[in-house]
Write a structure and sequence with these properties.
The chain is mainly alpha-helical and 111 residues long. It contains 6 helices and no strands. It has a domain of 50 residues.
């Protein structure tokens, strides 16, 4: 009977992943409705723009205050995802704060 909460958590997790997958399939279907466009012209400039805008976050360099807050939100997002992963592991294994057990120094930074 000690494993009942873990089993219930696993069932709810599988249902949630199934619901998420269903929505991703709907989004993918809608994306596929778009029409092809010829983008074979000026490839070097297109790659440069993609690198500067998407990877380099060029807009954040132009506005340093917004850039700083963007980095803060991004780091927070990464920390939250690490915590969610720990919650899922704890829910499936029936443990509590498993990250503290295996990575105590790093865990204290995030808590």
């Amino acid at each position: 009977m000690n494993y009942l909460p873990n089993i219930i958590f696993a069932i709810i997790l599988v249902v949630g992943i199934g619901y998420f997958s269903r929505n991703v399939k709907k989004l993918w279907r809608n994306i596929k409705l778009g029409q092809d466009k010829d983008v074979s012209d000026n490839k070097p400039q297109r790659w440069k723009n993609m690198a500067m805008i998407a990877l380099g976050q060029s807009k954040m360099v132009k506005r340093p205050i917004a850039g700083f807050f963007h980095v803060v939100v991004y780091v927070g997002f990464i920390i939250i995802n690490i915590e969610v992963l720990e919650i899922i592991i704890d829910g499936l294994l029936g443990t509590h704060r498993i990250g503290h057990k295996y990575l105590p120094k790093q865990y204290m930074v995030f808590s």
